[in-house]
């Protein structure tokens, strides 16, 4: 058999093949009669009026607190729905509300005992949040969720709150009187400021009027000056315009003369051009032809001289190369001859030096006899002692013989004393 339920309740099917029981929040289900059982549990929102009378606060002041709580069994959460079914299945909404109310009232009393009257009265939002937080954590285990909690009323039988109100009223009245005095003071100050601003505005207005009058006079004087100046300028401009007109007439006359002179010059230039063309046809072109012929002849003569000069330079270069080759060959022959002499000197040593000395001997004799040759005459005077004259002559001969080795060494580069001592 099919059963249905609305969204504000849940169906629980238990029995055959339903372990654990099937929970359906809003919907339909098929139930086998006799072997399966269908039960319903309400999901409606419950409104609880939570009253806590004469609860002692932290300072020992008894107060009565009334709160309003909204709660319901959570059907969308299967775990919370299962917990609610286990605890409240078969109970009416009033019974479920009573259980939740007692739980909330206990938590509310506990929180009141930890707070002062001032904290509860002045910060109602904080008190509501604490009750909501503590009650929610406890009711969740029963499958109930707290939707909201608000503090409705706080009162006491000892006129404690009334006394607090009197103090606050007195403070407010005091603040009001102070505020009124301040307002009166500010009003007087503002009135004085207004009067001062009025006088300042009046003076400023008079100053502005005087400035405006001064500006008017200055501008009027400036305008009069400008008008007079314009009148004078207009008169001067008229005279200047007359002078300019006369000058322009003279300039136009000059322009006419210039145009006439220009036309004459153009005619003269045309005549000169005609004569130049005639002269060019009769004289210049034949002269250019003759000049061209002479230039070509001069160019040919120049090329001929250049070629002759180049040929002569080539001949001189070849002759120089031949002479250089001959000098080089002669130098090589002399070098070979000197090398052979050096080899001979190296081989024969003293004999070669003697041979060389004999070759140079005529030159040495010439060198030695040169002082005698330079003498024009030689006069020998004897005083009767022939031996003395002979001695003088032999002295001169000995002087020549002493100078002989130096002359030989100068001519040949050979030291005679070494040669004679070597040969014995």
TrEMBL record:
Keyword Transcription regulation carried by entry: no
Top-level taxon in the UniProt lineage: Eukaryota
UniProt-listed InterPro entries: Band_7, Band_7/SPFH_dom_sf, Flotillin_fam
Domain annotation Band: ranges: 84-266
Keyword Membrane: yes
Location(s), subcellular: Membrane; Endosome
Chief localization: membrane
Signal peptide residues on this chain, from the entry's feature table: none
Coiled-coil ranges from the UniProt annotation: none
Gene Ontology terms: cellular component: endosome; flotillin complex
Keywords annotated in UniProt: Endosome, Membrane
Any one biological process term the GO annotation gives: positive regulation of cell-cell adhesion mediated by cadherin
Any one GO molecular-function label of the UniProt entry: protease binding
Record note on quaternary structure: Heterooligomeric complex.
Family indicated by similarity: Belongs to the band 7/mec-2 family. Flotillin subfamily.
Name of the protein: Flotillin
UniProt source species: Champsocephalus gunnari
């Amino acid at each position: 058999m099919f059963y249905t339920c609305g969204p504000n309740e849940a169906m629980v099917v238990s029995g055959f093949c339903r372990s654990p029981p099937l929970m359906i929040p809003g919907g339909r289900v098929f139930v086998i009669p006799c072997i399966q059982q269908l039960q319903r549990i309400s999901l409606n929102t419950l409104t609880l009026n939570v009253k806590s009378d004469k609860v002692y606060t932290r300072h020992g002041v008894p107060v009565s607190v009334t709160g309003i709580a909204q709660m319901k069994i959570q059907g969308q959460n299967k775990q919370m729905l299962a917990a609610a079914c286990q605890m409240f299945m078969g109970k009416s909404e009033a019974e479920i509300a009573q259980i939740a109310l007692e739980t909330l009232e206990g938590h509310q009393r506990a929180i009141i005992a930890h707070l002062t009257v001032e904290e509860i009265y002045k910060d109602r939002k904080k008190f509501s949040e604490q009750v909501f937080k503590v009650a929610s954590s406890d009711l969740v285990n029963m499958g109930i969720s707290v939707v909201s909690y608000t503090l409705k009323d706080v009162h006491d039988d000892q006129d404690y709150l009334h006394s607090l109100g009197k103090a606050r009223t007195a403070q407010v009245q005091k603040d009001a009187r102070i505020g009124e005095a301040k307002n009166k003071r500010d009003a007087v100050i503002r009135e004085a400021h207004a009067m001062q601003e009025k006088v300042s505005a009046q003076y400023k207005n008079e100053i502005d009027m005087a400035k405006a009058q001064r500006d008017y006079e200055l501008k009027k004087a400036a305008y009069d000056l400008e008008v007079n100046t314009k009148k004078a300028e207009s008169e001067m401009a008229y005279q200047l315009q007359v002078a300019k007109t006369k000058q322009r007439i003279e300039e136009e006359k000059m322009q006419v003369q210039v145009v006439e002179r220009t036309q004459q010059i153009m005619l003269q230039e045309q005549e000169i051009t005609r004569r130049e063309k005639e002269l060019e046809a009769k004289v210049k072109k034949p002269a250019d032809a003759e000049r061209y012929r002479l230039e070509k002849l001069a160019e040919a003569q120049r090329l001929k001289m250049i070629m002759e000069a180049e040929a002569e330079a080539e001949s001189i270069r070849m002759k120089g190369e031949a002479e250089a080759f001959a000098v080089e060959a002669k130098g090589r022959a002399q070098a070979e001859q000197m090398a052979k002499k050096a080899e001979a000197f190296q081989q024969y040593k003293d004999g070669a030096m003697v041979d060389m000395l004999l070759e140079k001997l005529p030159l040495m004799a010439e060198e030695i006899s040169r002082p005698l040759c330079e003498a024009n005459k030689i006069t020998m005077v004897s005083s009767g002692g022939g031996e003395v004259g002979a001695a003088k002559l032999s002295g001169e001969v000995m002087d020549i013989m002493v100078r002989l080795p130096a002359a030989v060494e100068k001519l040949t580069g050979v030291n005679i004393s070494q040669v004679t001592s070597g040969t014995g």
